[in-house]
Design brief:
single chain; 7 strands; Rossmann fold; globular; 185 residues; 7-stranded mixed sheet
Length: 185
């Protein structure tokens, strides 16, 4: 068991996480052609479950076996895989939908683009650097997107939605970057 797995397993043992899918996923997932979906850093499977119920065959990847336990036996369209994403490369042209919520690995940006099948949709949302001293976000800059970084990283795709803003559902100056894009044939 590596350090990341220990840390995330501890969080899933001691903290309660939302089981509701991310709003950006519920809003845009229907644009993707039905088929295979990849949920990167799936955690407790909140987005994976939603996608499975929407008709996708979902590979839910996460480093935490504790987080993924909620998906055990959840149905034939859900494939939970405990894996260190630092050592995972997405197979080329495999997915009609890739979801990346609150996870940042810049190393994976090209693999995400290559992993989309033509016409496939990418839904990506993660923490954004902010100057506000009271903002709720990870403290390590490695896990924070810079202004316009997400947009520029995925410019080879057709960007259909992009936003950098405080989360309107929170009052702690939490900032996020959100992107939805299509891989054109």
């Amino acid at each position: 068991m590596n350090q990341d797995q220990r840390r995330w397993n501890e969080r899933y043992r001691n903290k309660r996480f939302s089981t509701e899918p991310a709003e950006i996923v519920t809003r845009f997932a229907g644009m993707a052609p039905k088929g295979r979906a990849l949920d990167l850093a799936a955690g407790n499977g909140r987005n994976s479950r939603f996608l499975s119920e929407a008709g996708f065959v979902v590979d839910a990847l996460d480093v935490s076996d504790i987080g993924l336990r909620t998906l055990a036996g959840a149905g034939p369209n859900l494939n939970p895989v405990c894996i260190d994403l630092d050592r995972f490369d997405i197979p080329a042209r495999r997915y009609s939908l890739i979801v990346n919520i609150r996870f940042l690995s810049r190393r994976m940006f090209p693999y995400i683009q290559e992993g989309l099948a033509p016409g496939g949709i990418l839904i990506f949302q993660s923490y954004l650097e902010t100057d506000h001293p009271d903002a709720a976000a990870p403290s390590c800059r490695d896990y924070l997107l810079r202004k316009n970084e997400l947009l520029h990283a995925f410019l080879p795709l057709w960007i259909i939605f992009y936003s950098e803003a405080e989360d309107p559902n929170r009052n702690d100056h939490y900032q996020q970057a959100s992107l939805v894009a299509v891989k054109t044939p």
